[in-house]
Amino acid sequence: MSGIDASLVLRRGDFLLEASFRTPATGVTALLGPSGCGKSTLLNCIAGLQPAEHGRLEVNGEFWQDSGRHIFVPPHRRRVGYVFQDPGLLGHLDVRGNLEYGMRRAGRPQKPGAFARTVESVGIGPLLDRRVQGLSGGERSRVAIARALLRDPVMLLMDEPLSALDARSRSQLLPFLEHLRAELQIPVLYVSHAIDEVARLADHLVSLEPGKVVAHGALRDMLTRLDLPISHSDEAAAILDGVVTGYDEKFQLAQLAFAGGQLAVPQPRMPEGTAVRVRILARDVSLSLEHHRNTSILNIFPVRVLEISEDRAAQATVRLEASGTILLARVTRRSLSLLALEPGSEVFAQIKSVALLR
Amino acid sequence: MKTLATDLVPVLLTLRLALVSTTILLFIGTPLAWWLARTRSILRLPVESVVALPLVLPPTVLGFYLLLALAPAGPIGRVWRAAGGGSLAFSFSGLVIGSVLYSLPFVVQPLQNAFEAIGERPLWVAATLGAGPVDRFFTVALPLARRGLVTALTLAFAHTVGEFGVVLMIGGNIPGKTRVLSISIYDHVEALEYTRAHILSAGLVLFSFAVLFIVHLNNRRLQAQGP
To answer: Of the candidates A202, A232, A262, which is a domain's last residue?
Structure first.
């Protein structure tokens, strides 16, 4: 099978991590969880740097570890591109030296022009002869990403590549990562503790709690599952993938079609047919028994209540379905009782704001 | 003029001894320091302590046991002779063995510190970029520890040049064979030839100063360049 199929047990002193998950052969899989839950350790384990005590790790049909059969492929034969958090440039080499270090050891001849193309797409051409000590945080990250790509890897591992950056470098690197995501033909494992980053970049999610993988699956499904901690956070949200179907010039509104209906989103002009991803925060969705006509809210549509979790002192999170699309709404427990909401209730969701992610 | 020429012999002998010992120390000390910096074995602490012994023992004690070991009937002497070598005690080869042991901590300790300061990260980076263990050692660990390496080898060289006690115990005082600089100075002082003792002593002081100066200059320069 292609993609990653992992079932690993790691022990470091008192710390025990049990991780079983699968990821698809392409796209970004986010490893999301609080700091200290073992995300980086898991990444190191997949790279072979901190071997799992026992378990199995299969990547694109090739076993990298299988303790039952005493298989362990050492890290330098695993062909991973690893972007470390700090991000691990070699201090005794200049930028070009760092890029060439992995390229020379890639093991198969690079396609002609690969170096120039990668340097160009990552935007580090002017930095090639610089010493790595003189680079800014964002430049370091770009060099590390280019170095990992030039290694010609079968998988890209990224350990919180944005966390060490200031807000400005982060806002420059994030669109680049989105661009990269669209170009890459290999699976990416992306460690993060920031849900907004994950919502923009990932297609697949592995949710971790200290010591274990809680659940894994498609990002859209995972974010709206009430049995997972993400749906109870302040940033609880639903992700919708859709396409632009029209544009209202007069009011500067883009019309988006998604599985559950239509959304109007305030946006500068966008060409028809553009694939977009939007996020709707649970706290921006309110519920009503009737379809209000005289309201400032643009996006209202009929939904059915699937599930209710009274997860807070005064509030509850409600899981809704609009003809195949799942939404979350955060309402007070008082409203829950006034509207007599229960699984199966037919109501109207009023969406106060929609954020365009990409 | 004749006296100066005779004093040149121990000077050249000393330089040869220091050069040979330092070269051997490079090949023994570097892997030993690498192992000590990386191992989690229970042998680490005992080995570290043994390596550091020459720092605290009087050279006469080390020299005494070396003399016993190197003697024709001693454990090392017997193996050496079985392998076709001549007498080790009171020979240049014996002096080299003594110097290597005596200067070992001066190579191992700075190098071990330098290797430990590198940390795991650059080696992990190199591994994920396709470098195997030996490749990582030569292309990442050694270049990053170069400051420690230069310090270690310079100290070993200088320390061997200035050595007295061990040499006296196992080498005796054979002109052209084992009479090194420090022993010549001792002889001159014994014979009340203070002028000749002065020339050699002042030379050694200047040499040692120059070595330490170069080590510190080198450290400063590499520091400015970054790790």
So the answer is: A232
